[in-house]
Amino acid sequence: WMVIRDNFLYAYKHKQNYSSPTEMFDLHSFFKAIVSSDDGHELGQFELISLDETRTFIAASWFDMHKWLTIINRVIANVTAQQYFLRTQCSTICVSHKQRTSIRMYGTLHKLGFNDDVLCLIAACKYESDLNSAIN
After folding, report:
1. What pLDDT is stored for residue 92 in this prediction?
2. Average pLDDT for residues 117-124, to the nearest whole number?
3. Would you say 92 and 74 are in contact if contact means Cβ atoms under 8 Å apart?
4. Which residues contact 128 (CB under 8 A, 6 or more apart)?
């Protein structure tokens, strides 16, 4: 069971029992929430994407998934790729290997002529080590 409070997404074991979350996600550490694009995804499946990780969730229905995406992206505030990088760098003391490879992939995609910052960042976050998958 998931609940959004302030800038956080909380996971709970049981509905209506909000005493101790099993997981907590700072939504500002993510760049975007999107419909899952991987082959074989389930109806209602969506992803939260960041330089560090991609988290997958499944809503009860297609309609619920779109409600979740709308609310989460409002919290995230749909920052530009540059703003996201700046926010990440300002709040990160040590950059992980995945973050470094994602940033490199983002730069590579731009050098190859891909100019859509949002798509480049999503591809770089999801496929940081696989240029062919990032391009496709």
Report:
1. 57
2. 84
3. no
4. 98, 101, 102, 104, 105, 134
Q: Summarize pLDDT for 51-107 with one digit per residue, the tens.
A: 888 888 999 898 999 999 998 988 887 566 777 766 666 665 666 777 778 888 888
Instruction: Give the residue carrying structure tokens 């990440």.
Output: 88
pLDDT of residue 93: 60
Which of 71, 67, 41, 70 lies closest to 54 in space, CA to CA?
41
| Structure token pair of residue 101 | 């490879």
Angle of helix 117-126 relative to helix 97-111, nearest 10 degrees, comes to 140
Pairing state between β 2-5 and 8-11: antiparallel
Distance CA 99, CA 25 (A): 17
Nearest to 55 by CA among 63, 68, 64, 86: 68
Asked if residue 2 has pLDDT above 80, the reply is yes
**Helix ranges, the chain (H):** 62-76, 81-91, 97-111, 117-126, 131-135
Both ends of the chain: CA-CA distance in Å? 33
Task: Evaluate whether 8 touches 21 at the Cβ level (below 8 Å).
Answer: no
